[in-house]
Each structure stands twice: as C-alpha cells, then as structure tokens.
Amino acid sequence: MQSTIIPHPKQKKKWIIIGVIALIVIVAAVNIFIMQGKKKGASTTADAVSFEKVTERKLNNTKLVSGQVKPGNIESFYADPAKGKVKDIEV
Fold first, then answer.
1. Measured between alpha carbons, how far is residue 33 from residues 25, 77, 85 in Å?
2. Average pLDDT, consecutive stretches of 10 residues, N- to C-terminus, the chain (91 residues)
3. DSSP-assigned states of every residue in 50-73
4. CA 38, CA 32: separation in Å to the nearest integer?
5. Region class of 63: left (phi > 0), else alpha (psi between -120 and 50), else beta
6. Which top-rank group of organisms is this from (predicted)?
C-alpha cells in the first residue's frame, strides 16, 4: 500500500507563491539576456546624434509613368456672343 503525503493548505499556498515568484524571476532573466544580445549586435552609429545647418532649397520629384491623363471634373463652357467676348480661360 502506498502512502501519500497530503500537504496542509498553508504549505500548498506557500509552494504556489514560491512557484509564481520563481516563474517571474526566470522570465525577467530571459528578457534581460535577450536585451543584452540585441545591444551587442546593434551598431553604435545608429545611436549617434548629428547636427547639420538648415538650408533652403527646392525639392523636385519627377516620376515617369505610362498611361493616360483623365480629368476628374469636366466643365463645359459655351460662349454667348450677345454677352461679350471671352479673352482668356484660365485653368
């Protein structure tokens, strides 16, 4: 016949608390180990700060694409000669 030891409720609660604390310590240690590895692998120039003088210049951005240009809105204009002459139509 096997004898089983039944722990008291206080001992069971104590072991659960110890297990939770141990789990938190293990997770924290693994996290610190991973972060130290990332710091060693990262280049030091990425963390460097540099300053430059402010200059004013024009920015040109040109793209060559194929296709057709279609207007979004089409407006029709009909000149009425009785109301006068149209010199310019500015778009």
1. 12, 73, 82
2. 66 92 96 82 64 88 87 81 81 70
3. -----------------S----SS
4. 10
5. beta
6. Bacteria
